[in-house]
Amino acid sequence: MSTKARVGSLSQIGTITRYNFLNYFRARRFYVMLGIILLISLLLTVLVGYYRPVSFLGIPGEPVSLAVLGFYGAGWGGFISLVVIISAAFFGGDAISGEFQNRTGYFLVPNPIRRSAIYVGKWIAALAASTIIVLIFAAIILANGLYYFPGNVPWQFEQSVAFAWVYLVAALSLTFAFSSLFKSSAISILMSVILLLIVFGVIDTVSSVVVGIEPWYSITYGAGIVTNILSPVFPPHMQTQSFGSVLGGANRTNARFEVTTFNATVPEGLEILVIYFIVMALLGLWLFERKEFTS
Amino acid sequence: MEAVQLTKNFGSFAAVSGLNLKVQGTKCVGFLGPNGAGKTTTMKMFTGLITATGGAALINGVDVTKDKKAALASCSTLIETPEIYSALTPREALSMLCEIRGVPKAERRKRIDESLGLVKMTEWEDKRVGSFSKGMKQRVNVASTLLSDPEVIILDEPSTGLDPRGMAEVRSIVMSLKDRLIFMSSHLLAEVTEVCQEVAMIDHGKLLVYDTIENVTAKFAGGGGAVEVGFTRAVDEGLVSRVSQLSGVQTVTRTNERHIVVRFDPNLTARDKLFEGIAGLKAGAVSFEQSSGLEDAYLSLIKETL
């Protein structure tokens, strides 16, 4: 019998990452995702070039620093959340559930490797594939920005790209946790998209507008820093707007209708995203460790 | 490999119940039982695919539940019909396993070449697995168990999905594997008889017998004879009853829709009369085959199929 070296978990994580990335890179979904990004970028490029909207290129006479911020705010800020959510769902949504549904887990798991090494390796591979998508989108926006505002890249854009990456990390942890929860790939992908695209948005609105409580527990609230950093003035943490007199009840008292909106500060937003990353990564791993390969 | 009071419950259903079984040495042990007996569940517990509710599954003295990585260090497995990442080629998939299992870098290419050669997949080594048939994938799965020169190999119905030539090739591969312990489940008793030296039979999650095939056959096959009779039409209860009433017949067991196994009195000398009797029922009997000793023992020990 041949001599076999005991392989360390770090080395095994590297192996899982490499082959999963290769699998992602060759899979149709990577190119579908790439196609979606290129389509969004192409539409932006063509429409901005043809219509030259003021929301992107600024009002004539406006300071360039404001106009350039407006361009990145509209082009990058308007779409990056969607790109992050779709990437996380595409690459993370079925990463674990697929091992059960597609039975690839039967090839991988009954080997001298901890499930945690498989989980971490797959997570890193998904992060690498998603990061490529986000960076391609950033590069296209940057190329457009440099075309309209040569040599003028605001520091806020650089920070926004970094925040978007942190959001991607947190969103991937969330989708991996969902992927560990369900055995069906379709359900885990769908749940991830619905949750990130709709449910958290509703929670944010209901929590702040209806109840007046800061939605500090919501990932999309924390991710607000990705776009808010591109505002000429960072929005205030808490803002209450009053709307005229409202007839209230039989006494016809003059009641005021107030709407409170919250915006996470940069440290708070980063804190929320990092906590999401840690908690969801541990939850997903815990679920995967306990999940059984039953037919 | 040792199962100590190994138990697995799915809710209130006990799939494996206090299983005690120790197999050791270098040989092939067949693991037999009807559908739902707990064979695959037992194997999954030994490979970390599911966790035991109680007891221990030990490989080389290490409990799989407590330290799967150490327990499976010298063990390779093939449970059910695994799928391989569809965008990888067999060579890449096997390289991944070589790296995970610690096959030295210098040996990897040779080992992969040998393994793929044994399962006749060399020609396909650089094609993506996604385009393969079920049988081709199973050949790659079989190759994966040979990569790291393991001391213990756990095979759960390795012939599943293979054509007759593929089945024969797997049998030949298993028989060629010397100096290691092979624990193999199968529904093909002829395959087990050909390949294995010992058998363990379980039913309803409990071990019925574990011994050499010779001893199991001698103890449980009975002194009488048995024939498998094939019919052109489905066998119903009426036909089973009519065959049972023929002179010299001890038991009649329906093995599938169109086959029965007839056990008859060992002292029955005029067997041709029995065959004539069955043919005389005009129920479409078309074949008579001597039942194997292991099959006879199996049917004697296991009365129900579920």
Give me the count of strands of chain B.
14
| CATH class group of the largest domain in chain B | Alpha Beta
Instruction: Determine the fraction of residues in helical runs of chain A and give it as a percent range.
Output: 55-70%
Strand order of the largest sheet of chain A: 1-2
Oligomer: heterodimer
Query: Unreliable segments of chain A (pLDDT under 50, ≥5 consecutive)?
Result: none
Average pLDDT value of chain A?
A: 90
Tally the helices of chain B.
11
CATH architecture of the largest domain in chain B: 3-Layer(aba) Sandwich
Taking Cα atoms only, what radius of gyration of chain B do you get, to the nearest Å?
Answer: 22 Å
Sum up the structure in keywords.
heterodimer; A: 295 residues; mainly alpha; two-stranded antiparallel ribbon; 13 helices; 2 strands; 68% helix; 7% strand; globular; B: 306 residues; alpha/beta; Rossmann fold; Alpha-Beta Plaits; 2 domains; six-stranded mixed sheet; four-stranded antiparallel sheet; 28% strand
